[in-house]
Amino acid sequence: MNTRLIVRSLFLTIMCIALFTTVTAAGKPPSDSTTGTGRVFLPNPVASLQDQSLTDQKDADYAALQPAYRIVTLTNLDGSGYLRGDWANVMSETGKPAHSPNNTFLYNRHDDEFEQVMAYYWVTEAQKYIQSLGFGVTRRAINKESQNIRINQIGIDNSYSWDKHDLLRFGKGGVDDAEDAEVILHEYGHAMMDSMMVPFGYGTSIEAGSIGEGFGDYWAVTVSSVVAPTPDPACVADWDAISYTSSVPHCLRRIDRDLHYPTDLNGRVHHDGMIWSRALWDIRKALGNVKADTVILEGMFDYAPDTTMPAAAQATVNAAQRLYGNAKANIVLAVFKARGILP
Q: Which fold has domain 32-338?
């Protein structure tokens, strides 16, 4: 090799090293910086501890709650030190934004940052579960984006998915909503439907809205049961419900109520949604979560914005037939017949 080639080779080597150093310094984090550590509830203290005596106590971090905390791995972080990543983006909050240069987010419920960690973790886990079923991998994607989230910026005990601005917004008062994983997952369920059936939102009819609420409740239960199973999974948002329910067990709603279509319809979307969620729950019990959730999600692509329960049920049966054949489709059909949704 002559001197000119040696010099040229050395120059190229130096340039490659300099380019690598520049890219790394510019914010391309090493692979291990995309994960972190957080403290969360799995899914909430009442459900995990099976303790119906727990109360809010104005966000106090009291002794009886300590066994409910779990240390988890936060995945898909962008390396910025904030709770931003591939599938969740905590974009604003009451109080300080959670920040850690080494991605360690160990707060408790007395800290405003705790709900930020909860929202990031549970939204990310929900999207990872969706992809584990093939959606966004070998099937059509469902809300495969970094979901924008605002924490504790409503001064009332309410939360919602705002499809116009593509964000989830969680309220405070009583138990702050984002302290309960099943509230987070319920609202994420609405965002999923918005991404699949634009525009869907709460639907253009009471019945379509009821399906949306029923699916949100079911989605909260199926994901929390996969990530952190508890003894009474059909009880939705046990922790959030303690602030305004006196009955025991405390449940925002249940997805195992013995309600039938159309007999038990009363025109209130949260009540009527329990007819739909019960059918989905029975499908899950019959097929297991993987096949059931795959069928349910696949069928939702065929919903119309003004869908009815019979129309949505038939779309679900059709999805079961396409995916798994007549035997599984007949099981799904039998469930909807038992609820009175299909003849």
A: Neutral Protease; domain 2 (1.10.390)
Who contacts 215 (Cβ-Cβ below 8 Å, separation ≥6)?
Answer: 189, 193, 273, 276, 277, 280, 296, 300
Spatial separation of the C-alpha atoms in residues 263 and 212, rounded to whole Å: 19
Neighbours of 248 (CB within 10 A): 9
Token duo for residue 71: 């240390």
State the Rg of the chain over Cα: 23
Q: What percent of the chain has pLDDT over 70?
A: 85
Residue from 285, 286, 335, 291 nearest 312 by CA? 335
DSSP state of 124: H
End-to-end alpha carbon distance in the chain: 84
Q: How confident is the model at residue 77 (pLDDT cuts 50, 70, 90)?
A: very high
Residues near 207 by beta carbon (within 8 Å), at least 6 away in sequence: 265, 272, 307, 308, 309
Contact status, residue 98 vs residue 21, Cβ threshold 8 Å: no
Q: How far apart, in whole angstroms, are the C-alpha atoms of residue 236 and residue 173?
A: 18
Q: What is the pLDDT of residues 122-144, one digit of tens each?
A: 999 999 999 999 999 999 999 99
Hey, CA dihedral for 217, 114, 44, 136, is it positive or negative? Answer: positive
CA distance 172 to 157: 5
Q: What is the pLDDT of residue 202?
A: 53
Q: Which of 111, 182, 110, 120 is nearest to 147 (CA)?
A: 120
Grouping H, G, I as helix, E, B as strand and the rest as coil, residue 113 is: helix
Q: pLDDT for 206-257, tens place per residue? A: 999 999 999 999 999 999 999 999 999 999 999 999 988 788 999 999 999 9
Write down the residue that tokens 């989830």 correspond to.
168
> Which strands sit side by side in the sheet containing 104-105, from one edge to the other?
69-74, 36-41, 104-105
H helix runs in 85-165, sequence order: 112-132
Number of continuous H segments (helices) and E segments (strands) in the chain? 10, 9
